[in-house]
Amino acid sequence: MVLSQNNYRVVKRVSGEVSCSKLFGIIGGLSNQYLRNSAISKMYENAELTGSQTIVDIHVVKSKAIRLFTTSEVMIATGTVIEFTGENNSNVGIIIAQ
């Protein structure tokens, strides 16, 4: 599918968020890759996609808050749900921006 054509409509923006904490910034927590994948998975759950919908323009942002003995990390994935219109929407796939 080509998004430059007038063959889709924007449905909504969606997001997914995960967080973890580390003691002294190194003990505990989860890997960045795991947090990123989990945030994207949550975003897809929240999207509740139906029919010929998919998510495009996916971005993942990481933030960190450092406190006295702990560090909190949050990853937020955001994207745009689109729905293909017209007759040729059977080839809908996942489009991920890296």
The radius of gyration over CA amounts to 17 Å
Main sheet strand line-up: 1-3-2
The major pleated sheet works out as: 3 strands, antiparallel
Number of strands: 3
Shape: elongated
Structural class: alpha+beta
Average pLDDT taken over every residue: 86
Subunit organisation of the chains: single chain
Low-pLDDT stretches are none
Strand percentage lies at over 45%
- The helicity comes to 10-25%
**Sequence of secondary-structure elements:** EHEE
Give the termini separation. 18 Å
Give the helices and strands, then pairings:
Elements: E1 8-23, H1 32-47, E2 53-66, E3 70-84
Antiparallel strand pairs: 1-3, 2-3
Would you give an account of this structure?
The chain is built from one helix and three strands, in the order E-H-E-E. Strand 2 (53-66) and strand 3 (70-84) form a beta hairpin. It starts with 7 loop residues before the first strand and ends in a 14-residue tail after the last strand. 16% of the residues lie in helices and 46% in strands. With 98 residues, the protein is α+β, with helices and mostly antiparallel strands. The chain has one helix at 32-47; strands spanning 8-23, 53-66, 70-84. Strands 1-3-2 form a three-stranded antiparallel β-sheet. The radius of gyration is 17 Å and the shape is elongated.
